[in-house]
């Protein structure tokens, strides 16, 4: 192991968070029980906010950015983990309150680690990453709601060509749901069709302010956009349907009314991946293992080197990234 290794840190510069590559030593790392050699991390929307400084994600500085990681245990003071174990970490405050994945080595709490599922490579795990796992939490929540049947009326996925959206489409289609993709990028239609979308609506159509109760179009929806889009999606959801909302790519406000909820029994289900309990994580991982085909995964994710993080962060906020980006830490 080399004495120093590269990491991306968010530091305080004149009272503002600023990202920079730094060389760290092992003594710089937090004193947690498991040392992991990180092979891959990813670029999620939240990472884009942290790296560009457009969102205050880190709650203490300096902070190693990167909300997730996949790697191999090098040292462990925990009986649960041994050198050589392949592990994944999603959430648990990484890049917010705990040092995250953009570092060749990281020390982590044993309870944050999940064993890499059989048959998966570390790179696959990060191709799924937090966005894919959040998509699975959304699909599981819709299934648990109990009114949305495969083969029935369409399930809508907003932010379709993004990381959450692409994975949600693939999972829903593989389970037999009819999927409508809402995207602002018509050039991604072929990609989304290959993942399983059968119908399309434009991002613009859903972003225009509409009435509190509109024509019933969707049995359910996965929304990663928020704001007016989510308000319209709720107003267009069929009687008894449900919308799993996880994101704010279009804004964090919600200019909506109670009408869909009190007149159509529509449910708005909030999805958080960061502090999700292990049982929900296990359920999501099982869904991904059973229903996310390798071909889909390969088409969803590309791999980029760590030094491109600043560029990739700007791209994800500009909505230019299709699917997922895996970051190679080697
Ligand atoms: P991506 O950037 O990969 O995807 C977001 C997609 O939203 C874009 O690809 C684009 O899709 C669409 N979009 C972008 N900007 C706008 C806009 N201004 N108005 C409407 N649509 C827009 O991000 P992720 O998939 O990684 O994350 C999606 C959202 O989910 C983010 O807000 C993220 O913070 C949130 N998230 C929440 C989690 C949780 O625990 N609750 C966990 C993971 C993510 P298209 O081009 O197809 O229109």
From TrEMBL:
Protein name as it appears in the record: MDR family oxidoreductase
Every Enoyl reductase (ER) domain range: 19-327
Family matches, as SUPFAM superfamilies: GroES-like, NAD(P)-binding Rossmann-fold domains
Taxonomic superkingdom: Bacteria
Molecular functions (GO terms): acryloyl-CoA reductase (NADPH) activity
Entry-linked Gene3D superfamilies: Medium-chain alcohol dehydrogenases, catalytic domain, NAD(P)-binding Rossmann-like Domain
InterPro entries: Acrylyl-CoA_reductase_AcuI, ADH-like_C, ADH-like_N, ER, GroES-like_sf, NAD(P)-bd_dom_sf, Zn-ADH-like_protein
Keywords: Oxidoreductase
EC annotation from Swiss-Prot or TrEMBL: 1.-.-.-
């Amino acid at each position: 192991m080399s004495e120093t290794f590269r990491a991306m840190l968010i530091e305080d510069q004149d009272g503002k968070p600023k990202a920079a590559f730094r060389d760290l030593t092992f003594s710089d790392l937090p004193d947690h029980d498991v040392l992991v050699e990180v092979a891959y991390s990813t670029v999620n929307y939240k990472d884009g906010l942290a790296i560009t400084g457009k969102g205050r994600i880190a709650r203490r500085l300096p902070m190693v950015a990167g909300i997730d990681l996949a790697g191999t245990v090098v040292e462990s003071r925990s009986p649960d983990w041994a050198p050589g174990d392949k592990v994944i970490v999603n959430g648990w405050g990484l890049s917010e309150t705990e040092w995250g994945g953009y570092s060749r080595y990281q020390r982590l709490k044993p309870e944050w680690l999940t064993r890499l599922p059989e048959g998966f490579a570390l790179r696959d795990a990060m191709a799924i990453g937090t966005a894919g796992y959040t998509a699975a939490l959304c699909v599981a929540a819709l299934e648990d709601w109990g009114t949305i049947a495969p083969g029935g009326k369409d399930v809508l996925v907003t932010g379709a060509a993004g990381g959450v959206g692409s994975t949600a489409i693939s999972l829903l289609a593989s389970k037999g749901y009819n999927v409508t993709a809402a995207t602002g990028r018509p050039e991604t239609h072929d990609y989304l069709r290959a993942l399983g979308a059968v119908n399309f609506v434009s991002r613009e159509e859903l972003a225009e302010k509409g009435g509190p109760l509109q024509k019933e179009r969707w049995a359910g929806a996965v929304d990663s956009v928020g704001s007016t889009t989510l308000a319209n999606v709720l107003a267009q959801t069929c009687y008894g349907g449900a919308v799993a909302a996880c994101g704010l790519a279009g804004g964090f406000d919600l200019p909506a009314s109670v009408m869909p909820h009190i007149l159509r029994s529509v449910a708005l289900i909030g999805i958080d991946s960061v502090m999700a309990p292990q049982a929900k994580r296990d359920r999501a991982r099982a869904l991904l293992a059973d229903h996310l085909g390798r071909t889909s995964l390969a088409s969803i994710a590309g791999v980029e080197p760590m030094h491109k993080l600043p560029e990739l962060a700007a791209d994800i906020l500009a909505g230019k990234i299709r699917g997922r980006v895996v970051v190679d830490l080697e």
